[in-house]
Design a protein that fits this description.
alpha+beta; Alpha-Beta Plaits; five-stranded antiparallel β-sheet; five-stranded mixed β-sheet; 12 strands; about 60% helix; elongated; disordered N terminus
Length: about 525
């Protein structure tokens, strides 16, 4: 009879575990649907402001409907699966269908032009890393990379119609390949971090769960022993001995603190190890002395509530100062050792070392920051890219219109660059682009911004600068770059020149009109003989 109640195979999921997995997928479907609706709302706003066209908006609308409508049938299918392997494949299928939907949105916003939306993939990978086996983030990263690569390659070779939002955005194949490689690399970095972090968190979660169970058992026994303390002195001595042994052997720090002064009354071995002090040193000081100065205020409000009987205990995260100068992060639980209605006396604190977890959180935030920086910087010239140019230019135009400050824009184009590339090859051409980026940086102020606009074209935004001063900067760039000596072939020295167009912004002028005006001035310089600065009279 007992055997009939157990699963017939190790490959079958227990009913309660299946129900938990279904709840997770249902929550994921709600998040996916909500995020899809939010993206549609932003797309609607972009369409109403003429940022995108009807074909873009229609494609995004269909993609959002697809992302919402795939949820009911997939949830229904998973609800009737209790086989481990089939359930994993079903979960992967949901993620794959979700990736197709997000890829469609990226495609309808310009494909490679919408690289800024690829963090959607990173969010999917991170979520999968939290709720799925450690191998799944890499599978999802591969699927995301494949889908995005298909869109970029197919759009470039004409297999898919181009959905350009910005008509000026048409990077060369090498730049597309470079951006694609960066995105794929970062997706696998996110997959690695997600898998590693999820593994560590799951391991620590299981360990902490076991320790919490032990601690709760210890607290329960302590309360029982406290009740018996009133009956016999012998039971009191016995219960205190068991509690001392338990505290000394606990994997977390435990201490009793006098509430009015903060002085340690008792401490266990683990707490001494955490803060790098002996038991005698801790018993002769107060918790304020080993608390990081910036965290002292964290106790104030909660201690007042505890003393007033409004809360039964409280938890917080804080930093402790070790004797050797190091700092540890700790999660502490403070519980009163007096009954409600009695005069507040001593508190018991349980201290858990969470330094490793905090360091992982910081590392993850640093990784995200590096990813954001890489998405707006041109890899070759180390200048900002064209996508960041338009977002920054819009900010500067708004500032100029609001405060009436002058603003000058430079557009640079390397003269005869195609001939140079055809003669000496793209490697030498890349050296020219890289050196021009270095020259531009040297000639600018800290408040100025330089961008690689595309190919051999560069732009420079000069805030709070009139055209006459901008012309001085442009001439300095032109002259400095002309001094640069290139040796693309043995015993062959070459100087390369640049043509620059510049103009000052007219109040309330449209961004595209402003850029076009500067672009025409640059081409006028080309027509007038190149190697010159051309500006409006």
């Amino acid at each position: 009879m007992e055997a009939a109640k157990t699963p017939s195979s190790r490959n079958e999921l227990p009913p309660d575990y299946t129900a938990m997995l279904n709840r997770r997928h249902f929550q994921g479907a709600l998040v996916r649907s909500g995020a899809s609706v939010a993206m549609w709302v932003f797309a609607l706003a972009a369409y109403l402001t003429n940022t995108i066209k009807m074909n873009h908006f229609t494609g995004i609308t269909l993609s959002v409907l697809y992302l919402i409508l795939i949820n009911p049938p997939m949830l229904l299918i998973l609800k009737h699966i209790n086989h481990v392997r089939l359930y994993k494949y079903g979960s992967l299928l949901i993620n794959f269908l979700e990736i197709l939907g997000y890829t469609a949105i990226i495609y309808f916003l310009g494909g490679i032009e919408a690289t800024f939306l690829t963090p959607i993939y990173a969010a999917v990978i991170t979520y999968v890393g939290v709720v799925s086996p450690r191998s799944f983030p890499y599978i999802i990263a591969f699927l995301c990379s494949t889908a995005f690569s298909f869109v970029v390659v197919s759009e470039y070779f004409g297999l898919l119609p181009r959905q350009s939002v910005d008509l000026f955005f048409n990077p060369p194949w090498m730049l597309r390949l470079s951006n694609l490689s960066v995105v794929i690399g970062l997706l696998f970095v996110v997959a690695y971090i997600s898998s590693l972090t999820a593994g560590i968190l799951k391991k620590n979660r299981n360990k902490l769960r076991e320790q919490n169970i032990e601690l709760m058992d210890a607290i329960d026994r302590l309360r029982i022993e406290s009740a018996e303390r009133e009956r016999t002195a012998e039971a009191l001595m016995e219960s205190e001995g068991r509690f001392r042994t338990l505290v000394e052997q606990a994997a977390v720090g435990v201490a009793e603190i006098e509430m009015s002064t903060g002085r340690f009354f008792t401490v266990n071995r683990r707490l001494c190890e955490m803060v790098g002090r002996t038991e005698e040193e801790l018993l002769s000081t107060a918790f304020q002395a080993i608390t990081h100065p910036e965290d002292l205020h964290l106790h104030e409000q909660k201690t007042a509530l505890l003393a007033a009987g409004k809360i039964g205990h409280y938890d917080l995260e804080k930093r402790y100062l070790r004797k050797d100068g190091g700092i540890i992060w700790a999660n502490i639980t403070v519980s009163p050792l007096w009954k409600l209605g009695e005069k507040p006396g001593n508190n018991m604190i349980v201290v858990e070392d969470i330094t490793d977890r905090k360091q992982m959180e910081i590392a993850l935030k640093d990784s995200e920051q590096r990813y954001r920086e890489l998405s707006i910087v041109d890899d070759l010239t180390q200048l900002y890219n064209s996508r960041h140019f338009y977002s920054q230019l819009k900010i500067e135009l708004d500032r100029s219109n609001r405060y009436g400050q002058p603003l000058t824009l430079l557009l640079l184009d390397i003269d005869n660059f195609k001939t140079f590339n055809d003669t000496y090859g793209h490697v030498e051409g890349d050296q020219v682009l890289m050196r021009l980026g270095q020259v531009v940086k040297r000639c600018l102020r800290k408040t100025d911004f330089a961008y690689r606009y595309g190919g051999e074209e560069f732009t420079v935004v000069l805030p709070m600068t009139r055209s006459v001063d901008g012309a001085i900067t442009a001439e300095r760039i032109r002259a400095e770059f002309k001094k640069e000596l290139f040796t693309p072939a043995p015993d062959q020295d070459v100087h390369v020149t640049v043509s620059i167009g510049l103009a000052q912004y007219n109040p309330q002028e449209g961004m595209k009109a402003f850029v076009h005006r500067v672009d025409q001035l640059m081409y006028q310089g080309k027509k007038n003989g190149k190697d010159r600065v051309c500006c409006e009279p």
